[in-house]
Amino acid sequence: MDRFSGKVALVTGASSGLGAAVATRLAAEGAQVFGIARNRDALVAIQQQVRSDGGDMAIAVTDVGAYEQCIAAVAKCVEQYGQLDCLVNVAGSHRFHHTPEITPQEWRQELDINLNGPFFLCQAALPHLLASKGNIVNVASIAGLEGQPYSASYCAAKHGLIGFSKSLALEYTKHDLRVNVVCPGGMATPQIDNIQIPEDADFDLLMRSAALRGMMDAKEVASVIAFLASADASAVHGAVYTVDRGKTCG
Ligand SMILES: NC(=O)c1ccc[n+]([C@@H]2O[C@H](COP(=O)([O-])OP(=O)(O)OC[C@H]3O[C@@H](n4cnc5c(N)ncnc54)[C@H](O)[C@@H]3O)[C@@H](O)[C@H]2O)c1
């Protein structure tokens, strides 16, 4: 498939897990990918892999929670490639806490990465996406659709991201811009490998959020994101796509 030939995609969280899978998939389909994340070494490794597969990827170390860095990343992407067609906000972080123990700093950090960053990037990218008749895919979570134990800040941020995305979609319904959300269930990625469950957590409550049909591969979610970012999804706007092997179907 060559759905992204001549298209430029900015992908956040491109150094790991789902973001790396999206960057790899879009590049394999012909996109020029501008990948951002915090960890330079991991980002360079993905860039090398994409390039060795014949793809085109530029990178910039960026903290999506920092407004100025988001503005700079969009500017660098457009400077490098001359346009922007797709913004895919994948970067995220999920910390588990007993709610009374979340510090103000931890609360703000989780909202910065999962909600404020996507907002800053959408705002900065909008003029370019309107010019290119492009689109946005924001990655939330099934934790943006339901409560999960020990995840108050993560759930609040992901619910907020869905609300923001739907509001943006409605505001631009009369323009050539599409905005969609993907809500993955459990994927086998470093985010899951690095989970630290708080002491004395109630196992029964935690199991309510567990994947029913096993963990997904990030590639299974990346393929849905690639569909939504492509012209194949030209009629899909303001949608909230669950990709969770049926976890939330009832
Ligand atoms: N893994 C899951 O089970 C799961 C389930 C539902 C939703 N999600 C969501 O999918 C997305 C990707 O998660 P993943 O599992 O691939 O995680 P991951 O930990 O493998 O990757 C996270 C990526 O986000 C980047 N990142 C984190 N904080 C950042 C910051 N401040 N600035 C810039 N980049 C930052 C990291 O550098 C990394 O590239 C996240 O939004 C996550 O919330 C994951």
Please give a structural write-up.
It is a single chain. This protein is α/β, with parallel strands linked by helices. It has one domain: NAD(P)-binding Rossmann-like Domain (Rossmann fold). The protein has helices at 17-28, 40-52, 67-81, 104-132, 152-171, 190-193, 203-207, 218-229, and strands at residues 8-12, 32-37, 56-61, 86-89, 135-139, 178-184, 240-243. A 7-stranded parallel sheet has the order 3-2-1-4-5-6-7, with helices on both faces. The longest helix is centred in the middle third of the chain and has 29 residues, at 104-132. The model has no long low-confidence stretch (mean pLDDT 97). The structure holds nicotinamide-adenine-dinucleotide.
Put the structure in a nutshell.
It is built from 8 helices and 7 strands. It is of the alpha/beta class.
Whole-number count of domains = 1
In N-to-C order, the SSE pattern is EHEHEHEHEHEHHHE
Specify Rg, calculated over alpha carbons: 17 Å
- State the major sheet: 7 strands, parallel
Order of strands, widest sheet: 3-2-1-4-5-6-7
First CA to last CA: what distance?
35 Å
> Unreliable stretches, pLDDT < 50, 5 or more residues?
none
Count of separate DSSP helical elements:
8
Under CATH at level 1, the class stands as Alpha Beta
Q: Tell the overall outline.
A: globular
In the CATH classification, which architecture applies?
3-Layer(aba) Sandwich
Query: Which homologous superfamily in CATH is the superfamily?
Result: NAD(P)-binding Rossmann-like Domain
SS strand fraction = 5-15%
What level of helicity do the residues show?
40-55%
Ligand roster: nicotinamide-adenine-dinucleotide
Mean pLDDT reading: 97
Report the CATH topology name: Rossmann fold
- SSE-based structural type: alpha/beta
How many β-strands, per DSSP?
7
